[in-house]
């Protein structure tokens, strides 16, 4: 296995692009090589197989879509109320919208995980770790609501992200005078998170 970390990272990012654009069926080593602009056969020197590549894409996507620590620190200076939760959800929406390719690759990862038990186990662990981290963060930050609030908020935001980033027009006008996605983010938080 080749060990050039910069080349590996470039190949993984190329894999994200291919996965988001072509879907899992289009994710071949040759397609990754082409996307990365490297000689044919390069990706096969860095990944044992497609599942290995997909697992590394999963890890990379979680890093790409993670909150900025400085932004988190700034937000945590605010009062620990519903408006802070709203700000966190707006930040989540902004990160996913800014890296739409990364988010679409995550959706493709979910679909591919339904077809491959080895990938399903790995991806289930990473998604569950994200949810557990969200619950832990919510508790430690002293935000309103408990584990159930975070779980329902997670599910509602997941649905909004999916609709907004895959079928952007589907939610337009569903709630008259509510801006998509910003107003829907606020409605979700108002509905799910208790007032303190």
Care to describe what's here?
There is one protein chain. By secondary structure, the chain is mainly alpha-helical. 69% of the residues lie in helices and 0% in strands. Helix 1 packs across helix 6 (100-113), helix 7 (117-141) packs across helix 8 and helix 8 (147-166) runs antiparallel to helix 9 (182-192). The protein is elongated and about 55 Å long. The model has no long low-confidence stretch (mean pLDDT 95).
Radius of gyration: 19 Å
Structural class: mainly alpha
Shape: elongated
Largest sheet: none
**Percent range of helical residues:** 55-70%
Count of DSSP-assigned helices: 9
Write the layout of secondary structure elements.
Layout: H1 5-22, H2 29-36, H3 50-64, H4 69-75, H5 82-98, H6 100-113, H7 117-141, H8 147-166, H9 182-192
Helix pairs in contact: 1-2, 1-3, 1-6, 3-6, 3-7, 5-9, 6-7, 7-8, 8-9
Summarize the structure.
The protein is mostly helical. It has 9 helices and no strands.
Looking at this protein, list some descriptive labels.
single chain; 196 residues; mainly alpha
């Amino acid at each position: 296995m080749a060990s050039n970390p910069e080349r590996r990272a470039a190949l993984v990012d190329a894999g994200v692009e291919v996965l988001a654009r072509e879907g899992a069926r289009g994710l071949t080593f040759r397609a990754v090589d082409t996307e990365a602009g490297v000689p044919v056969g390069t990706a096969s020197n860095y990944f044992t197989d497609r599942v290995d590549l997909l697992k590394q894409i999963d890890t990379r996507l979680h890093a790409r879509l993670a909150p900025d620590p400085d932004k988190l620190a700034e937000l945590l200076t605010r009062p620990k109320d519903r408006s802070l939760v709203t700000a966190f959800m707006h930040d989540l929406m902004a990160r996913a919208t800014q890296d739409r390719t990364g988010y679409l690759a995550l959706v493709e990862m979910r679909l591919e995980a339904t077809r491959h038990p080895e990938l399903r186990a790995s991806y289930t662990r990473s998604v569950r770790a994200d949810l557990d981290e969200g619950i832990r963060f919510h508790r430690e930050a002293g935000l309103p609501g408990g584990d159930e609030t975070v779980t329902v908020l997670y599910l509602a935001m997941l649905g909004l992200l999916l609709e907004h980033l895959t079928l952007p027009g589907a939610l337009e006008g569903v709630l008259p005078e509510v801006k998509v996605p910003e107003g829907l983010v606020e409605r979700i938080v108002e509905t799910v998170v208790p007032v303190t």
